[in-house]
Write a structure and sequence with these properties.
Layout (H helix, E strand, L loop, with lengths): L16 H14 L14 H24 L6 H10 L2
């Protein structure tokens, strides 16, 4: 049971849930981790951390690329993140 205020897997943009799941599966596959879905409690934390770490690196690279091309990082998502974590 998770204590209040410590819920995990709350997406800032709920419509992105399916895309994020596909992204996670793609990263796990590229790392050679097969059948990375469903219950992951028996997967070593090192592997889970590798998947999450690679996902974050790619998302940061995408944001940096967007900024380098004159784009901006949306403030709408940042505002939503602050209001959902309170």
């Amino acid at each position: 049971m998770v204590a209040e205020g410590q819920r995990s897997n709350v997406h800032v943009v709920p419509q992105a849930s399916q895309a994020l799941e596909q992204f996670k599966q793609q990263v796990a596959s590229e790392l050679g981790i097969t059948n990375y879905q469903g219950y992951l409690g028996d997967v070593p934390s090192r592997l889970n951390g590798a998947v999450g770490g690679h996902m974050v690196r790619r998302m940061i690279a995408l944001a940096e690329q967007n900024l380098a091309q004159g784009g901006t990082i949306g403030t709408q998502a940042a505002t939503a993140a602050r209001t959902t974590t309170r």
